[in-house]
Design brief:
five-stranded mixed sheet, 15 strands, Fructose-1,6-Bisphosphatase, Chain A, domain 1
Length: about 290
């Protein structure tokens, strides 16, 4: 196999990439032989309110072990992890925030459906706009998506750049219950060729970054652990990300409590179309 090209990251970015790659390689090795029953065995309650199952706990433990030295090297950090919640690592004055979703797409992972990811973001402040490093490992394909603010985005070391002139032909939805999906699809008639529902917000955002999809929308409100790393990858690839507006990122906190809309597209028309679609789905949900 040919050696992958290296992303043009800073030294700090390279350190985070190497640590997370090693962690995700280990996660994949451990998960691969596990049955669906083993993956979904409950082990407790997560800080995000969901039941923590074995695959979630394994992934979070592996990621945190890999990145704790990096957080210490930065003088500490506020760690926000889906299962473990908020935890101060090091001194209370540390300005770094690290957001970890050990398994994004837990339902898929529990059912051994190979569409789930590990997503991590590193920020120098408390909001979505402060994220400077984003990482998403697709555990189905093994592909690594990474971005550093102002430097670009890459998939397996190859630069990502969306084609803003591309027509909106394929779109992805998350939180796609039957009622929401039906309502969301109505505004797309005659404008969209195909609809996809992958089951991982981070991977849907990365699909826009890679051009696999032209736009995406979450039909339910998202948490920062689901979107923080992937939204930077999307934006550094040249896509537009709205929460729901593209100017809202600085008002979206990095925490486990807040919920925010998310839409993304390769151009402004795609974002507008998916925002109308997302709104239609929300109206149906509110009326039920």
């Amino acid at each position: 196999m040919a050696e992958r090209p290296a992303p043009r990251l800073s030294a700090d970015g390279v350190a985070w990439l190497r640590a997370l790659d090693a962690a995700c390689d280990a996660i994949e090795c451990e998960i691969a032989p596990m049955s669906s029953a083993e993956r979904r065995r409950p082990v407790g309650a997560g800080a995000g309110g969901d039941v923590t199952v074995w695959v979630d706990a394994l992934a979070e433990r592996t990621v945190l072990s890999a990145i704790e030295p990096l957080m210490a090297a930065r003088g500490g950090a506020l760690l926000i992890a889906e299962e473990g919640g908020h935890r101060q690592v090091g001194g209370p004055d540390a300005r770094t925030t690290v957001v970890v979703d050990p398994i994004d797409g837990s339902l898929n992972a529990k059912r051994a459906l190979p569409i789930f990811s590990t997503a991590v973001a590193v920020a120098d402040g408390p909001t979505m706009a402060d994220v400077w490093f984003g990482y998403v490992r697709d555990h189905g394909s093994g592909a690594t998506h990474v971005a550093e603010r102002g430097r670009g985005a890459w998939r397996d070391g190859r630069p990502l750049a969306v084609r803003p002139e591309a027509a909106t032909l394929v779109v992805a939805f998350e939180g796609a219950s039957p009622a929401r999906l039906a309502a969301a699809c109505a505004p797309l008639e005659g404008q969209v060729h195909r609809v996809r529902a992958m089951g991982s917000l981070a991977l849907s955002l990365c699909a826009v970054a890679t051009g696999a999809c032209d736009a995406m929308a979450g039909l339910t409100r998202a948490r920062s652990v689901d979107t923080a790393g992937a939204q930077l990858i999307c934006r550094e690839a040249g896509a537009l990300v709205g929460m729901p507006d593209t100017t809202d990122l600085a008002s979206v906190p990095l925490d486990l409590e807040a919920r925010h809309p998310v839409v993304a597209g390769n151009n402004a028309d795609a974002v507008d179309l998916l925002e109308r679609s997302r709104t239609a789905a929300g109206e149906v949900a509110a009326a039920r």
